[in-house]
Specification:
- The structure holds two protein chains of two kinds.
- In chain A, α1 (7-23) runs parallel beside α4 (68-80), α4 crosses α7 and α7 (219-255) packs parallel to α9 (301-327).
- In chain A, the strands form three sheets. A four-stranded mixed sheet of chain A has the order 1-4-5-8, with helices on one face. In chain A, strands 2-3-7-6 form a four-stranded antiparallel sheet, with no helix packed on it.
- Chain A is built from eleven helices and ten strands.
- Chain A has helices spanning 7-23, 26-34, 41-50, 68-80, 87-101, 104-115, 219-255, 267-296, 301-327, 338-351, 355-371, and strands at 121-124, 140-142, 145-154, 161-167, 174-180, 186-190, 200-208, 211-213, 257-258, 261-262.
- Chain A starts with 6 loop residues before the first helix and ends with a helix.
- By secondary structure, chain A is of the alpha+beta class.
- Chain B folds into three domains: 7-84, no CATH class; 121-237, Butyryl-CoA Dehydrogenase, subunit A, domain 2 (Beta Barrel), CATH 2.40.110.10; 246-367, Butyryl-CoA Dehydrogenase, subunit A, domain 3 (Up-down Bundle).
- At the A-B interface, α7, β10, α8, α9 and α11 of A face α4, α9, α10 and α12 of B.
Chain lengths: 372, 403
């Protein structure tokens, strides 16, 4: 047993942090937040050059063939820097979906493009308010093509293709469709979310050209398995964000004086920070478990993923909220950067399922583990 | 990162498991023994076979095991219901302090008997005037030839009434600042002038005591560290205390709560089908799992030679309130019957009620929740201390509420 990253992985972390400090400073996040673009294209191109989009893609498909332990290190640093790029949609979701269910031809076509950053993919599941379920799916494949409406779809406007979850009369009641988005039968409109630094869209399909990805009627099981994998990777981003928000709060409290002393010396503030540290540490340790389960394709992945995800949601949201409070009135201004964490933490907290969804999945997985 | 055993670890685990299977005392063997006798029997059996304090040097009864092997041993021993508990202070706190600050003759004399469980130790730190502010303690020691003469009072001393030795912090110089005037000793609890009075707790039990010292003589050879260095020595003990008390999944844990939630009904359906119940259990599972893996991470760090740091305070800060919340929640699931505390009538033979009544103690012993949070903020995050009114004063000038 060994519960640490290797020296090479720590080196990668250092390199990633240095890279993002240079190329993704708060001003870069703010530029996307205040501008029209869905993401920072210059930063995205540099990330592609670093090879991060190719991390876990096998070499035969143009990837680096590294492990998920490398990918989670990158995820943590992207979360820490609140990077305004479509990494999670393209890497944690679209790439994973293709690797899990793509035919040889589909993998040969898309994985090299994803690895080289020449294509951006996304995953379209939600169809509006409420928890997605097989029964609630209205998007469906007809004689003339795929029709339906998905919202919100992260990076929906920037993506070249989407993996769309549609209803099916066969099997588990759902199928996956790979849809190239540059066609007249697909419309994409920007939808505003609470984090303007990450583009989202409402996507409409009107008899769109689409091909099956994976088996007919195998889409719901595939969705749950995909979400398990993505949950671990999202959780690492959340842990990185939580750590950054905690450090910002600590540093501000050390420099801010009230009643003649640093507010960091008041126990009310110290205990707030200690709570952040505790939540972050537990979340991080659970994320180790998730990373290991993901990397080894362990039967414990559903439990490990839900555990990592629930802890990370709590840690990130708490750190982001209390970071604003620690800053007082200044934290509530547009000018201060506290808002980046506050927005992103909540966005990440619902992106691949809410805390309530993952709490329920956790207990289900616990029951299945005990039964096994 | 690898959560699976290596080949050597798997072999170690198999060896530990098979020894445990063959040697854990049966109910018949323990019949008629009190808790201490039962714990001593089990400890001696482990010692004789080389399974006591396994990380210690072989010459003191250990087997020089790695930190990871300690994790494996703990996992395997936890699969059995074994007697124990009374050695935590001696083995977990006094021994590391002796190893760090004691002389070779101390090691040879005391460590083997700590490992074998033949001698039990207690901790004489807290005083009526010094709890969270431990360095405010007043029990004084005055030099007399080769001895020190101790007068004063300690409080909250767990197990003083059955302990053979105690570790003790006293004031040797009231004319300097409070942290600078302390010294650290260990003493024979049977020394003349030591008087022990049990304190009845809100649980109804009496596990801890007041200990009075009247002209108790301790030889200078039982001093650990220099005169005036007692605070530094005490910190060694306290860091190990927080690691030793830890967060534990013992008592009411997710497995117990799940069992209860599966058995009792809400609106004629098992409570575990209720989404609010599932959410609660999930959160506690996340805490238990997070503490377990945080512990493993710190073990990995230790096996690379790092010393356990203040981050170990997390175990108690999370674990103690969690235990209280879980016991409380499970009693709520029982509705009106949650109040019943009866071995035959209560679920889990009254474990919930026992845990709930004991839980406040867990949140105080070894540093209150608030002190733990201060330690994390100050020593891990580097935040400044609250201003102290006693800073720069000699101890005898420090204001108190009692005079």
């Amino acid at each position: 047993m060994n519960f640490e990253f290797s020296e090479e992985q720590e080196l990668l972390r250092e390199q990633a942090r240095g890279f993002l400090t240079e190329h993704c400073p708060p001003t870069a996040v703010r530029a996307v937040l205040e501008g029209e673009a869905d993401y920072d294209d210059a930063l995205w191109q540099k990330i592609v050059e670093m090879g991060w989009t190719a991390t876990v893609i096998p070499e035969e498909f143009g990837g680096l063939g590294l492990s998920y332990l490398e990918l989670v290190v990158i995820a943590e640093e992207l979360g820490r820097s609140v990077a305004p790029v479509p990494f999670s949609s393209s890497v944690y979701l679209a790439t994973e979906a293709l690797m899990a269910c793509g035919s040889q031809a589909q993998k040969e076509k898309w994985l090299p493009l994803l690895a080289a950053g020449e294509a951006i993919g996304t995953f379209a599941l939600a169809e509006g308010n409420g928890r997605p379920s097989v029964k609630s799916l209205t998007t469906r494949m007809g004689e003339a093509g795929l029709s339906g409406r998905k919202l919100p779809v992260a990076d929906g406007r920037g993506a070249d293709f989407a993996i769309v979850v549609g209803a099916s009369d066969a099997g588990d009641g759902a199928s996956w469709y790979l849809v190239e988005l540059d066609q007249d039968a697909v419309s994409r409109e920007a939808v505003r979310t609470l984090d303007f630094s990450r583009g989202h869209a409402v996507m409409e399909f009107n008899n769109a050209r689409a091909e099956l990805l994976g088996g007919e009627g195998a889409g719901w099981g595939a969705t749950e398995r995909l979400l398990d994998r993505a949950a671990v990777l999202f959780a690492w981003e959340q842990v990185g964000l939580a750590d950054a928000a905690m450090i910002q709060a600590r540093d501000y409290a050390m420099g801010r004086y009230a009643f003649g002393r640093a507010i960091a010396s008041y126990q009310a503030i110290k205990h707030k920070l200690a709570n952040m540290y505790v939540k972050n540490t537990l979340a991080r340790s659970n994320c180790y478990y998730g990373a290991w389960a993901l990397n080894t394709d362990s039967a414990e992945l559903p439990l490990a993923a839900a555990t990592a995800r629930v802890g990370a949601i709590k840690a990130a949201v708490f750190a982001a909220e209390e970071n604003v409070q620690t800053h007082g009135g200044m934290g509530f201004t547009w000018e201060f950067d506290c808002q980046f964490y506050y927005r992103r933490a909540k966005l990440l907290g619902v992106n691949v399922g809410s805390e309530g969804y993952w709490q329920d999945r956790l207990i289900t997985a616990y029951e299945q583990n005990n039964a096994a | 990162m690898d959560f699976n055993d290596t080949q050597e670890e798997a072999a170690f685990r198999a060896e530990a498991a098979s020894w445990l299977k063959a040697n854990v005392p049966t109910a018949d063997e323990l019949e008629g023994l009190d808790d201490i006798a039962a714990a001593k029997l089990w400890q001696k059996r482990k010692y004789d076979a080389g399974w006591a304090c396994i990380r210690w040097e072989k010459k003191y009864g250990g087997r020089e095991a790695t930190a990871i092997e300690q994790v494996i041993w703990n996992q395997e021993e936890a699969k059995f219901n074994t007697p124990g508990g009374v050695f935590v202070i001696g083995q977990g706190m006094a021994a590391p302090t002796l190893m760090t600050w004691g002389k070779p003759e101390h090691h040879e004399r005391f460590l083997p008997k700590l490992a074998s469980g033949e001698e039990i130790w207690c901790q004489l730190f807290s005083e009526p005037a010094g709890g969270s502010d431990l360095a405010a303690l007043r029990t004084k020691a005055e030099r007399d030839g080769d001895d020190w003469v101790i007068n004063g009072q300690k409080i909250w001393t767990s197990g003083a009434h059955y302990s053979d030795y105690g570790i003790l912090v006293v004031r040797t110089d009231p004319n300097v600042a409070k942290h600078k005037g302390l010294s650290y000793f260990f003493l024979d609890m049977k020394s003349p002038g030591v008087e022990i009075k049990p304190i009845k707790q809100l649980t109804g039990g009496a596990n801890f005591n007041e200990v009075y010292f009247t002209d108790v003589r301790i030889p200078d050879s039982q001093r650990l560290g220099e005169v005036g260095q007692g605070w530094q020595v005490a910190l060694t003990t306290l860091m190990n205390e927080r690691a030793a008390i830890g967060g534990g999944g013992a008592g009411v844990n997710v497995d117990v709560a799940y069992r209860i939630a599966s058995e009792v009904m809400i609106d004629d359906k098992p409570a575990i089908e209720d989404s609010a119940v599932r959410a609660k259990l999930a959160d506690w599972y996340v805490q238990e799992s997070g503490l377990r893996f945080t512990g493993y991470r710190s073990m990995t760090a230790m096996s690379r030679g790092e010393i356990p740091g203040p981050e170990n305070s997390i175990g108690k800060l999370v674990g103690a309130p969690k235990t209280q919340e879980m016991a409380s929640f499970c009693m709520d699931l029982l509705e009106m019957s949650g109040a019943i505390w009866d071995e035959n009538l209560s679920k889990e033979a009254g474990l919930l009620q026992l845990t709930y009544m004991g839980a406040p103690g867990g949140r105080i012993a070894g540093g209150t929740d608030e002190i733990m949070a201060n330690i994390i903020a100050e020593r891990v995050l580097g935040m400044p201390q609250e201003p102290r009114m006693d800073k720069g004063m000699s101890f005898n000038e420090v204001p108190t509420g009692s005079n």
